[in-house]
Write a structure and sequence with these properties.
It is a single chain. This protein is mainly beta. Helix 1 packs across helix 5. The longest helix has 35 residues, at 22-56.
């Protein structure tokens, strides 16, 4: 050790040995003096015994779990499970100088604590007192373990032992305890069942009350076997650290579990539960955290004041009075420039005014307490506090807060200070960097970081230069030769023990910026030495080292450990490692080697610069190449083995520049300021903050609003011109650089938010206070949003309560100090069975509104009903003429069982309570419902009821009346798929206000996770783009616009819609030339083969490639290609198919980005069939060069059942003749038919069996002949007749019922009847056997079935079946029921009528129409009459009955001859005469006229 002097023993300009503690000097001198004399004598004897003892205890180092508090240097205590030593037995010898127990390596780095072994009495040597040793020896368990594991171990201790023996005994005791512990653990593992038990809390978490912005940790210790699984809950909700990064931290170690909450705020006030569970059971423990906030604290939280000792009334025990503090004449928003001096001051009035009383005056910048320095001076004059910033820099920009703390309370006052860049030394140069800091300082190495300036001088910054200056000199030296763009740089080559300051300059194409403010002084020294200089106690490293005091010199160091690449950019790579364990006490240095990935050639990097720190930065690496690295240690004994090589690292920036921030929204604040808020930069790593820029509309010149990055997403831009209109944009930055600018905001005119332009005011009171749940000491309240929110968003609500005793209200008390955003709140700390009233106030940016009217009086008693409580917070949205969407929240009180559904009720607004009716019959599970039963122009109210297994609970408070109408300008969400296949939902609103925001939701829950959907808003349009549309995105999407008259819309993405959109997206992303037809093949004349397809749409620039069996084809004799760009028809023609043409033909189409192809496989039987058909068509073409049949002979049956033999001919001329033959004999065809028609016909009018035969037609002329034959014999003739029969059947009419005087007739008409037609009549699906009573027949075209004298048995379904050789045809009719009754009645009537007709009286004839007779002649007329019974005969003249007398003689002979005689005719006999016959069946008459003339008159 004497040969390797530590650096702190060397004389430097700034450091000497004076800082070393007396304790350390004494220990070092005593160690050096004693070790040199005793080392040689003890070395040989102690090595063997010590090594044996220490190997039994598994080496020198005994690892313990980490602890956060250091163990004092005066003693060291081992765990009782392993050591058996007590701290009282390890105190140093009283006569020796107090030693140090720090274990150090050769570089004097602290690596642990030493367990010293002291010379002394038996008590010190053995480590046990007599009483303790006796007690241990008497223990049966102890004796058993000693006998089991230490047989042969010497039990007697010597009175005096050397240090060597004492050390061996201690090691043996440690080894014994460890082996006993391991044996017990082994037995536990071997017998798990006997040890398994449910979890138990050995130490339960305790409750805490903390100030806001403090951190708090809950601890508990849990036992149980198997090891319990521990879960933390907040208000019965599982705590997920991943969902709140940086907020919660969970740790578990050796059954000790902890929950750490970072920077508590008021929302962290809750009941926390820790649950431990294993296979044997579950147990929970509870603790509460109360977060308090100072009254009157500004939005930016400040450190809490020091606690004061006060009584319950706030009086100070020293004075017995309460101080009242007021800050007046405060400083406002201030603007300065770099290099200037600025003073901030405020007058403070403290009453009562006590002489010589001075309050505590503190100044903060951005929540950080300022200390007096050369940059800031603080002064208190008795009534005024002043802060002077002597030399402004951009680091001084921020929110300054003055805090005046008295004995009873404190008051604060805050304002923002802006610092602009000083004028650049070179025009166009950028602003100076800021916040230069030194990190990870070591012996010869430090990392310098900074923040980029907001002003780039009009051109992008090319990079930065880092300068350093040794403390005590004024010379600045540049650390990097080329500018670096990364805002972090490792500076190497520092001199150990010296101190430095650093500064940074930015450069662009115009020149260099001013230098930044210099960094804090940093010393190039080992971190362990720096820690030792800061305090007398060394850090606890988690190791206890049992070692001899003699160092092991001359040891070649081992391999460095845990080598890794901690930082990699395109300019440098930083390596970090840990020193080796085997290195002796001599200082070591390091050699760094690199190797290009893929090679085995290692090259030493630091050949000239010695590396003393376990950090190193490598420069001049090739960007884009991959390297591996390793490190070797060396000292005077030699160079050690290399460390394990790192993974291949590619040189390049690993940290990406942040993406541009999202939508920027400006809001009016004062007449010189605007509140700018924006959406955070997405996926930004190591974000430093944001710069905000403003530009007067039309100037296109942006100026920075802040010169120091802000980390929030809201900033107040001051110093704007009143009345001017500005646009804003935001840039994000990290160490990699500045992002692109966000989109410019909407223009906003600078004017006061209250009383200027937009009438912002505090909101009106909430109303409708109701109780959602009640337990013994708390009640959950709900209320409705104010009718007028004041023109600005409501930021929260405040709830007050008061107790009502005997009907007399008490004093109002605040229920919540911090506002709540929900319209429901649990008021705690109430008293059971007491009565309370509540009031609620709403707040916005303009202030807190007046309180609501006091609620009704509610009794605080626990609800025990089984059904759930009322739902709450009902909201109506998407109001249209016939539909709307109702949103609601589930009840707070669940009842006996969980809520399993909701019912919606509706009624007209002016209707009675009895008019409530349900909208849904079945309960719904969602917290929303679209109601579709509205009538346009009607006003409705709604309410919701929840149900569980016990039943339906109380209804919610009804909504406000809603008018069912579609407001003018209402728009809907439009789904769009762009050319790249990106699917988006778009919503536009024309009624925006400056405060309006587009809020997108899924299933009516606001979308906050951007992993599935990205939202972009510009002006009055908002677009929600699906990142990767999938089944997880199915749901109802809605977009609402705040600060409008209910502008909102929704879109339902169903599974069917999802499928359509994905198909459409694929078509847009991978456009395909649409084809009307796929590739097909057809044969043309001469047997040519035509391959073709038709594109539905293709431009003139489209390209076609013809491929056969993966070989491209080209135009030639064999292949003829054609592309008609007007019709999109693409074709390729081949004259014939050869065997080598068998394969796959493909047409490949390309039109810009769109492509498509179509293939046709011609192999095997398909190819052979096409080849055969092509050859046939070629032969056919040759045939068709003369007269030929285009269509061969066939027959056709007309609807009239006439058979026509026909054929179609072609290529004929006048000389061409056609001859018809039947069975070889020529027959004559249609003479009227000409060849010009191209069709030859032979008509068979009424076909019968005699027409069967073989028909042939011959077509010939001088060019040749062609023949066509048609065989109409046997089967051919039967097929023809079957077709005739089919036509007959199809022409048949529906079966009808007709009554006759004989019975009932069923009949059907056909257009033509053929005697060969086979017909079957059916009755009840059975063929009818004809008898004399049931007959069938044909009359012309009528087919009938006659049922004579029908009876009940004749009822049923009748059918006539026509047989055509195939399926036949049936016509049916139902002769039963009313049809039969009607037919039968008609039959009876006709039968009676027929009888009556046969037997009624009749005049058979014999009477003339006119009789002309001469006067004085005799007239005699006779006629036949019939009828049964014999009819009565009456003669009439001029409608009057004639009585038989001498002049008129009427006779009836044989009952059938009636005669009429006028004996002597005179002129008076002229007239109309009638005979009237009648019997019971009827009457009939016959008329005749008699005309009498005299001979004289005739002459």
């Amino acid at each position: 050790m004497s040969g390797s002097t530590p650096f702190y023993q060397k004389h430097h300009r700034h450091y000497d040995r004076g800082y070393r503690s007396k304790e350390l000097e004494s220990a070092v001198s005593q160690y050096q003096s004693s070790s040199s004399s005793s080392y040689a004598a003890r070395r040989s004897s102690s090595r063997a015994s010590a090594s044996a003892a220490l190997s039994a205890s598994s080496g020198h180092v005994v690892a313990l779990h980490e602890r956060t508090t250091p163990i004092p240097c005066s003693y060291t205590r081992l765990s009782s499970s392993y050591s058996g030593l007590e701290e009282s037995r390890l105190s140093p010898m009283p006569k020796r100088a107090k030693p140090t127990y720090l274990a150090m390596d050769k570089e004097n780095q602290i690596i642990g604590y030493v367990v010293p072994i002291f010379r002394g009495s038996q008590e010190y040597a053995s480590g046990f007192s007599d009483t303790e040793e006796a007690r241990v020896k008497e223990s049966a368990g102890y004796m058993a373990r000693r006998n089991l594991f230490t047989s042969g171990l010497e039990m007697e201790r010597t009175e005096q032992t050397s240090r060597k023996v004492s050390m061996r005994e201690s090691a043996e005791r440690i080894s014994l305890s460890k082996r006993i512990y391991e044996n017990e653990e082994h037995h536990k593992r071997m017998n798990k069942d006997s040890l398994m038990h449910a979890p138990e809390f050995v130490i339960k978490p305790r409750s805490h009350t903390v100030w806001e912005k403090q951190c708090v940790r809950l601890h508990c210790t849990v036992s149980g076997w198997p090891d319990p699984r521990v879960v933390w809950y907040k208000n019965n909700v599982t705590i997920d650290p991943m969902a709140h990064p940086g907020k919660y931290k969970l740790e578990s170690s050796y059954n000790v579990h902890s929950l750490e909450i970072n920077r508590c705020d008021f929302d962290d006030t809750a009941q926390y539960r820790v649950s431990a569970m294993n296979s044997k059971g579950e147990l929970s423990s509870f603790a509460s955290i109360v977060v308090k906030r100072f009254k009157g604290e500004v939005e930016e939280a400040l450190p809490m004041p020091r606690p004061r000792s006060t009584d319950k009334d706030g009086l100070i025990s020293e004075y017995g009075i309460t101080f009242d503090t007021h800050i007046v004449d405060g400083f406002g928003v201030s603007f300065g420039r770099e290099g200037e001096t600025m003073s901030l001051g405020a007058t403070v009035i403290i009453s009562p005014n006590l002489a010589r009383y001075q309050p505590e005056v503190q100044w903060y910048r951005d929540d950080v307490l300022l200390q007096p320095s050369k940059w800031c001076h603080m002064h208190w004059s008795g009534d005024k506090a002043t802060l002077t910033l002597t030399h402004l820099n951009k680091e001084d920009e921020g929110l300054y807060t003055l805090r005046i703390t008295t004995k009873s309370k404190y008051e604060t006052y805050s304002a923002y200070v802006f610092v602009r860049d000083a004028d650049a030394e070179v025009e166009g140069a950028p602003g100076a960097p800021l916040d230069v800091k030194c990190q990870d300082a070591n012996k010869d190495y430090v990392i310098v970081t900074w923040k980029q300036p907001a002003v780039d001088g009009g051109s992008s910054i090319l990079g930065y230069f880092v300068d350093r200056c040794e403390v005590g000199t004024t010379h600045w030296s540049q650390c990097n030769d080329t500018p670096i763009k990364f805002a972090r740089f490792p500076v190497t080559g520092l001199v150990e023990g010296r101190s430095y300051t650093f500064r940074v300059r930015a450069v662009n194409k115009s020149g260099m910026s001013r230098p930044s403010r210099v960094s804090e002084v940093v010393a190039a020294m080992d971190p362990a030495d720096r820690a030792r200089m800061r305090g007398t106690s060394a850090p606890w490293t988690g190791q206890i080292i049992v070692t001899e005091e003699e160092p092991a010199e001359g040891v070649v160091p081992g391999k460095p450990k845990e080598l890794e690449v901690t930082e990699a950019t395109k300019n440098y790579v930083v390596l970090s490692w840990k020193p080796p364990g085997e290195r002796g006490h001599e200082g070591i240095m390091y050699y760094v080697e690199k190797c290009v990935s893929g090679t085995d050639s290692w090259q030493r990097v630091n050949t000239e610069i010695p590396v003393k720190s376990p950090r190193f930065a490598l420069f001049d690496l090739a960007e884009g190449k991959a390297y591996s690295f390793r490190v070797r240690c060396c000292n005077s004994a030699g160079v050690g083995e290399p460390s394990e090589a790192t993974e291949a690292t590619t040189v390049g920036d690993k940290l990406d520049i942040p993406s541009a921030p999202g939508r920027v929204v400006p809001t009016r604040n004062t007449d010189t300021s605007v509140v700018v808020s924006w959406e955070a930069s997405r996926h930004a790593k190591e974000l430093v903050g944001y710069y905000i820029e403003a530009s007067i509309v039309g100037s296109n010149k942006f100026e920075p609003c802040n010169n120091k990055p802000v980390k929030g997403t809201r900033f107040i831009c001051h110093g704007l011109a009143t009345g001017e209109s500005y646009v804003f944009r935001v840039k994000a930055l990290n160490a990699a650089g500045l992002s692109e600018c966000s989109q410019e905001s909407e223009a906003i005119e600078v004017k006061a938010a209250i009383g200027g332009g937009i009438p912002h005011a505090s909101p009106t009171p909430p109303y409708g206070i109701s109780v959602l749940e009640c337990v013994r000491d708390s009640m959950v309240l709900a209320w409705k949003q104010p009718t007028f929110i004041g023109g600005a968003d409501i930021t929260g609500y405040f709830v007050d309560y008061r107790e009502v005793i005997n009907g007399v209200p008490g004093t109002w008390h605040e229920a919540n100090v911090k506002s709540v955003s929900d319209r429901a709140y649990r008021v705690s700390d109430l008293k059971e069975n007491r009565k309370y009233q509540f009031q609620v106030r709403a707040a916005n940016m303009a202030g807190v509104g007046i309180p609501s009217l006091p609620s009704g009086t509610f009794v605080c008693e626990e609800w025990t009903i089984a059904v759930p409580g009322p739902p709450h917070d009902l909201q109506v949205t998407e109001v249209r003429a016939n539909t709307l969407v109702l949103l609601y929240k589930p009840p707070v009180y669940q009842g006996r069982d969980p809520v399993n559904g909701f019912y919606i009720d509706i009624k007209e607004a002016d209707a009675e309570e009895e008019a409530w009716r349900g909208v849904n019959e079945k309960a719904i599970l969602t917290n929303y419902m679209k109601i579709k039963i509205l009538k346009e122009g009607e006003t409705y109210v709604f309410r919701v009821r929840a149900q569980n297994k016990a039943g339906v609970g109380k209804a919610s408070e009804p909504t406000e009346p809603v008018l069912a109408e579609t407001k003018p300008g209402t728009t809907e969400i439009v789904v769009d798929v762009d050319d790249d296949g990106v699917i988006s939902m778009n919503f536009a609103c024309s009624n925006l206000t400056p405060d309006s925001k587009f809020v997108w939701s899924k299933n009516y829950e606001e979308i906050t996770d951007d992993t599935r959907i990205t939202v972009a808003t510009s002006g009055g349009k908002s677009k929600a783009t699906f990142n990767m549309l999938a089944e997880d995105d199915i749901g109802i999407y809605s977009c609402a616009v705040t600060h409008t008259d209910g502008a909102c819309s929704s879109y339902t993405l169903s599974a069917e819609e999802l499928k359509k959109l994905l198909e459409l997206s694929h078509d847009h992303k991978f456009p395909v030339i649409p084809l009307k037809t796929e590739l097909a093949v057809e044969l043309q004349e001469k047997g040519r083969i035509r391959f073709w397809l038709q594109a539905e749409k293709i431009s003139a620039n489209g390209k076609i490639e013809y491929v056969f069996n993966d070989n491209s084809l080209s135009q030639g004799e064999k292949y003829k290609m054609n592309f008609n760009k007007d019709t999109g028809v693409i074709e390729m023609i081949m004259e014939s198919l050869l065997p080598e043409d068998e394969g796959t033909f493909t047409f490949q189409l390309q039109d810009g980005k769109a492509t498509n192809q179509s293939s046709l496989v011609l192999i095997g039987d398909v190819f052979k069939g096409l080849q055969k058909e092509s050859a046939f068509m070629r032969k056919e073409w040759h045939r068709k060069q003369g007269p030929h049949f285009v269509e061969y002979l066939s027959y056709e049956v007309t609807p009239e059942c006439c058979v026509i033999l026909k054929c179609k001919v072609g290529n004929i001329k006048k000389e061409t003749v056609a001859l018809w033959y039947k069975d070889g004999r020529e027959v004559k065809g249609d003479e009227k038919l000409t060849f010009t028609e191209g069709v030859l016909k032979l008509e068979i009018a009424q076909i019968s069996k005699k027409d069967a035969g073989v028909y042939e037609i011959v077509l010939k002329d001088d060019r040749g002949q062609d023949t066509s034959t048609l065989n109409l014999t046997e089967q051919g003739f039967r097929d023809l007749m079957n077709e005739v029969f089919s036509n007959i059947a199809n022409s048949s009419t529906a079966l009808k019922i007709q009554s006759t005087d004989e019975g009932i007739r069923l009949y059907s008409f056909v257009s033509y009847y053929n005697e060969a037609l086979q017909v079957t009549w059916h009755h009840k699906d059975s063929a009818i056997a004809f008898t004399d009573r049931i007959k069938s027949g044909v009359v012309g075209e009528q087919l009938w079935l006659q049922i004579t004298e029908p009876t009940e048995k004749d009822k049923g379904k009748y059918a006539i079946e026509f047989h055509d050789g195939k399926g036949g045809l049936k016509r049916t009719v139902e002769l039963s029921g009313q049809a039969f009754d009607d037919a039968y009645a008609e039959f009876q009537r006709l039968k009676a009528a027929a009888i009556a007709e046969r037997n009624r009286a009749r005049v058979a004839g014999g009477l003339p129409d006119v009789v002309t007779i001469q006067e004085l002649k005799a007239l005699n007329l006779t006629c036949n009459i019939s009828g049964e019974p014999l009819p009565e005969v009456v003669w009439l003249k001029n409608e009057r009955e004639i009585v038989s007398d001498g002049h008129y003689v009427m006779k009836l002979e044989a009952g059938k001859y009636a005669s009429f005689t006028i004996t002597t005719v005179n002129t008076a006999d002229s007239g109309k005469y009638s005979i009237l016959v009648k019997n019971k069946y009827g009457t009939e008459s016959a008329d005749f006229t008699v005309s009498v003339f005299s001979p004289d008159s005739k002459k």
